[in-house]
Amino acid sequence: MTTPTNRIAFQGEPGAYSHEACRKARPDMEALPCRTFEDVIEAVRSHQADLAMLPVENSTYGRVADIHHLLPESGLHIVEEAFVRVHISLLAVPGAALSEVREAMSHTVLLGQCRGFMRRHGIRAVTGADTAGSAKEVASRGNPSLAALASPLAGEIYGLDRLADQIEDRQNNTTRFLIMSRQPDYSRRSDRMLTSFVFRVRNIPAALYKAMGGFATNGVNMTKLESYMVDGVFTATQFYADVEGHPEDPALHRALEELRYFTSSLDMLGVYPADPLRETQRQDA
C-alpha cells in the first residue's frame, strides 16, 4: 500500500496563483512546485504528490491553453473545484517607494489586467516568464525602480514590500482550478454537485444537436461545453462538458443515457461539489 505524501502539486514558482489556490483549498498539505502542467500530472501519477491543482479557466481571459487536452489523458480524476480571486499587488524591494518605480514585470496576461494603474503612475510594462518568477527576479536584482505584479503570497515568499494592493482593473477577476486525484470520488458530498466528462459524437447528421437534446428535455443545466481538435486533425473533434448534478440523479442519468446513444466515446472526468463562489457569481451576474 502506497503511503500518502500529504502533498499537492501545482505548476509554477512558489508564490504563483496556483500556489495560492493550494494554500486556500488544502492548507494542511505541502505545496509542491512543478515546471509544467505535465509535470504536475506526473507528480501525482508517480506518487510524489497526492493531488494536483490545475487552472482551467479565467473569468477575464477564458480557458487555459492546452489544459483540456491533458485532462482526458492524465489518468487522474476531478475531486473538487476551487475558485480563486486574482488580487494583484505591486511588489518592490524593501524600502522602495511607489514614486521610484519606473517598470513593472509580470506575465503578459497579468500585465494586461493592470493597465489603468500602470497608466496613472507612469509605469512601463516588462514581460516576465510568470508572475511569481517575476517577483523572484525583482528580489534578486535589488533595483528600487523595478517592481513585480504578482500575488501578495509572492511578496511574502520573496521578501518584497507591497506598494499597492488589488490594483487589477476588474475586481471580479477569478480563476477556476480543478483538484485532481489518482482515485475518483463519486460520493455525494454536497447539495450542489457537478459532473465533468469528455465525448466524441458519432458520424451521423446533427449528432451534436441530438446528443445535447437529452440535457434540455430533462432540465439539466450545462454550465460549459467546449470543443477542441484531437491529434491535430480537423475532422476529429472532442467535446468537454460540465453539467450540474450527480450521475445518479434521475434527470442527469437519463440525459447521459441519451448522450451515450449519439457518441462514439464518453469518459467521465469527475463528480465533485460546486465551489460556493460559483453561486455568488451567479447571483452577481
UniProtKB/TrEMBL annotation:
SUPFAM superfamilies xrefs: ACT-like (SSF55021), Periplasmic binding protein-like II (SSF53850)
Domain of life, per lineage: Bacteria
Enzyme Commission number, as recorded: 4.2.1.51
Pfam families (alphabetical): PDT
Protein keywords: Amino-acid biosynthesis, Aromatic amino acid biosynthesis, Lyase, Phenylalanine biosynthesis
GO cellular component terms, A-Z: cytoplasm
CDD domains: ACT_CM-PDT, PBP2_Ct-PDT_like
Protein known as: prephenate dehydratase
Annotated organism of origin: Paracoccus haematequi
